[in-house]
Amino acid sequence: MIKNLFIDLDDTLWDTYHNNKESLRELYLEEGWQQFAPDYDAFWEEYWIHNEGLWELYRHDKIDKYTLTLRRMREPMPWLASLSDEEILALNRRFLSVTATKTRLVEGALEVMEYLHRYYRIYILSNGFREVQHAKVERSGLLPYIHRMILSEDAGVNKPNATIFRYACSATNSRCAESLMIGDSWPADIVGAKNVGMPSIWFNPRGLECSMEGYAPRHVIGHLKELFQLL
């Protein structure tokens, strides 16, 4: 019997893509980056693809937070090449401070969380950075439905490492077999849960093709509101 839900935050509940796009646009305009990249949408798409690649490396402990932060600002923005590491970090802090104010959620997130909260203990399990994740949850209206947030920085490892899932269960006095992981990332959320025997639901609104021989998540959904019928 499922008693606990571990739910990813970014792009599962909180709309990371659009919130970050809006946040970076503010920095882009304040800094006058139009002179280097006049088409913001094209600039954003290049940045987003690059950032996603760096997060994949970070998830698998191939780069650390410091390196991710520097590279995601420097590499898609060659006009920042002359800035020191401290100046890059200051820009990133400004970006994160704006990001933390954004409140756009994935469609259906609030209604689904209000419903699930009645029947399960709900925990956020996220690789996101401590300095913004709590603000995202509070300002977007998700906080009343969450018992606790578990971050990779608390566990010392990132999803999909089995250690963070075991840490999350221990910290919340939960059993993996009585818990369910819900997330949008196949490698981080679904494979990670599988590694500790935790069932999962893959939130896959983009219809991605991912699989693992001999394993499938309990359900695959394209919209959060499908959880009304499943849980």
UniProtKB/TrEMBL annotation:
<dbReference type="InterPro" id="IPR011951">
    <property type="entry name" value="HAD-SF_hydro_IA_YjjG/PynA"/>
</dbReference>
<dbReference type="GO" id="GO:0008253">
    <property type="term" value="F:5'-nucleotidase activity"/>
</dbReference>
<dbReference type="InterPro" id="IPR006439">
    <property type="entry name" value="HAD-SF_hydro_IA"/>
</dbReference>
<dbReference type="InterPro" id="IPR023214">
    <property type="entry name" value="HAD_sf"/>
</dbReference>
<dbReference type="Pfam" id="PF00702">
    <property type="entry name" value="Hydrolase"/>
</dbReference>
<protein>
    <submittedName>
        <fullName>HAD hydrolase, TIGR02254 family</fullName>
    </submittedName>
</protein>
<dbReference type="InterPro" id="IPR052550">
    <property type="entry name" value="Pyrimidine_5'-ntase_YjjG"/>
</dbReference>
<keyword id="KW-0378">Hydrolase</keyword>
<dbReference type="InterPro" id="IPR036412">
    <property type="entry name" value="HAD-like_sf"/>
</dbReference>
<dbReference type="InterPro" id="IPR023198">
    <property type="entry name" value="PGP-like_dom2"/>
</dbReference>
